[in-house]
Amino acid sequence: MKLCRRASELAEYTGTVGFVPTMGALHEGHLSLVKACREACDTTVVSIFVNPTQFNDPKDLESYPRTEAADLELLEEAGVDFVFAPSVAEIYPEPDTRVFDFGGLDRVMEGEHRPGHFNGVGQVVSRLFEIVRPHRAFFGEKDFQQLAIIRHMVAQLGLPIEITGCPIVRDRDGLARSSRNALLLPEHRAAAPHIYEVLSEAARSLRGAVSVTEAKRRIAEQIDANPLLKTEYVEITTADTLQPATEWGDSSGDLRCFVAVQAGAVRLIDNVAI
Q1: Which residues have a Cβ under 8 Å from the Cβ of 243 and sit 6 or more positions away?
Q2: What contacts 160, CB < 8 A, 6 or more positions away?
Q3: Given a cut of 90, is residue 108 above it in pLDDT?
Q4: Cβ(175)–Cβ(181) under 8 Å?
Q5: What is the pTM for the complete model shown?
């Protein structure tokens, strides 16, 4: 495995290049993306970069976990070929003032609650694509809205990159794997699986049984029944456009339920098909 700090250190690749962009603090979810990448591509590149432009809260940027030494060990064991771990100056030699049009995908849910977040995601991912030049890139469905936005951006920019979404990886108790989980206090970590319990039950029983509005109300009420959890939003959308559904018949295909929940000082997101 070759560790590269500068774009110029990335060697000329052979064959199909697969890319897994990360912000480090790696876990089994990231490693599942690496595995999918290695199985599909000849060369696997993973980036580790905590991108400042996607944090609308400076305290959130400051507290984001950074575990590079442990991350590099995991990636070497996973058989990665190149790790790109640049400085901020390497990614942004000049301030990035680009503003993206994501066709409305960024105006709901995370985009509504984290202003500027997805524009920062567009900046860093497009910059990493420019440096790494992958044929395929792999993203997790836990950040389902981000995945949709990156697909839109790639199509909009005409980039010859295939975007592959990979299933959510969960702990045995159902909590979606996230780098932020490491910041949970023990009591909030114990409470957090309740989020997926509620979503799973909703996916089984609510579609068509009650109105969409009532389903969202019940999901929030049931999550908030745990005093250590506080729902920020519950949304049910079409899976393709991410536009809020008002009736169960709004989509002939999948609907998805998205939640953001505050667990103490840590904000958790999750989603399920419903």
Answers
A1: 104, 108, 237
A2: 135
A3: yes
A4: yes
A5: 0.94
Residue that the structure tokens 């400076």 belong to: 58
Structure tokens belonging to residue 203: 């996916």
CB 199 within 8 A of CB 256: no
Token representation of residue 6:
């500068």
Concatenate the DSSP letters of all residues of 72-91 into one string.
Answer: HHHHHHTT-SEEE---HHHH
User: Which helix or strand (DSSP H or E) is residue 71 part of?
Assistant: helix 68-77
- pLDDT range class, residue 252, cuts 50, 70, 90: low
* CA–CA separation, 218 and 231 (whole Å): 11
**How confident is the model over 26-39, as pLDDT tens digits?**
999 999 999 999 99
81 closest CA partner among 162, 138, 29, 3: 3
- Point out the residues that are catalytic: 30
Residue 140: φ, ψ to 5° = -85, 145
At residue 119, the pLDDT reads: 97
176-197 confidence digits (pLDDT tens): 999 999 999 999 999 999 999 9
The closest alpha carbon to 65, from 177, 182, 192, belongs to 182
The owner of tokens 């003032």 is 97
Cβ-contact 45, 16 below 8 angstroms: no
Do 220 and 234 contact (CB within 8 A), yes or no?
Answer: yes
Structure-token pair, residue 184: 């949970």
The pLDDT assigned to 204 comes to: 93
